Amino acid sequence: MIICLIFGAASAQSITFLRIGTGSTAGTYYPIGTLIASVISNPPGSRPCEAGGSCGVPGLIATAQTTHGSVSNIHGVANGSFDTALAQSDMVAAAYKGQGIFHKNDPVTSIRVIANLYPEDIHLVVRKGANIESVGDLKGKRVSIDVPGSGTRENAQQILKAYGLSIKDIDAVTADPDKAVTLMLTDSLDAFFFVAGYPVTAVSELADAGKIDLLPIEGEVAEKFLSEHPYYSDSEIPAETYRDLGSVPTLAVTTQWIVNAGMPEELVYEMTRALWHPENRHLLDRGHEKGKLILPETALKGVSTPIHPGAERYYREIGVLTD
Fold first, then answer.
1. Residues 91/151, Cβ–Cβ less than 8 Å
2. Three-state SS string across 8-69, please?
3. pLDDT tens digit string along 78-114?
C-alpha cells in the first residue's frame, strides 16, 4: 500500500494506491479482482457519488495484479507483497491453522477476511479422444495440476487421492491455465484441473473449439470426500455454460477477499462499505457473471478465519453480524 500527497491549487489530497492479488487472466480471479478494484476506487477529481460518480473510497486507487493464485496470494498478503487478495476459502482456513499445504510452516495468523464472495467450481477438463470417462481413467494420462502457489494444485491432489490416485499415477504436468489451453489445442495434454467460478475463459475457448468435455465428480467417492472436507460443497456447472456441454455435477469451494490484519481499520471499513454500497450494485451485476453472486447476505457464509475489525464494524452496522 502506497500513500502519497498530490498538491492542488487549494490543498494537498492524500492518495492511496492498493494492490489486489488475483490469478491468471484465463481464470475468474483477475476479472473479479479488476471489478472490485473499480468498485472501491475513487481517484481524485472523480464526480461525487451522489452526482452519479464514484462511490468508492475517496483518494483510493486500486489495481488488480496477476498471480499464481490462492497460495501465492495468501503468502503475498502476509509478507506485504500485496495489500489485499482473493483466495479460496479452504486455502485461507488451512493457512490460518497451519494445515494442509501450509503444515510445514508456521500458521499464517496475520490474514483476515473482508468478505466471502462467490463459489468456485472444480473444472476437470478432458480432451475429446483421450478416452477419459472417469477420474480413475486419468491414470497414466498427461494431466496438468496447475502451478505451485495455486489453490487448484492442492485441490487436484486431494481429488486424485480421493479416487485412489497420486501424482505418481499420472503424467503430471505443471501448467497454468493459459499454457494448459495451448497444450490442449495441440493435443499435447489429456486433461487439466481448474478451480474457478464459471464461466472460465480458458474452458470457453476450448469448448468453442470443440476440443473438450467436463468430467463429473459425483457419487459415493464425492460424498465421502465432502464428509471429510467441510470446506467443499456439492455444485453443478449448468448446461450450455460452455458451448455444447451439458450440466456437470462437481464440487466447489468459495472465494474470499482477504487482507493483512495490520491494514488500518478505517481503510478496511471504507473498502467494505464501498463494496456493498447500493450505487455500486450495478457494477457487480454487470461486470461479471459471478458478480451477481457477490451479496452482503452471504458475505460471512462459511468464514472461519477472523474478520478484519474494519469489515466487522461495517457488518455490525448493517445487521449482517449480530453476535
1. yes
2. CCCCEEEEEEEEEECCCCCCCHHHHHHHHHHHHCCCCCCCCHHHCCCCCCCCEEEEEECCCC
3. 999 999 999 999 999 999 999 888 988 889 999 999 9
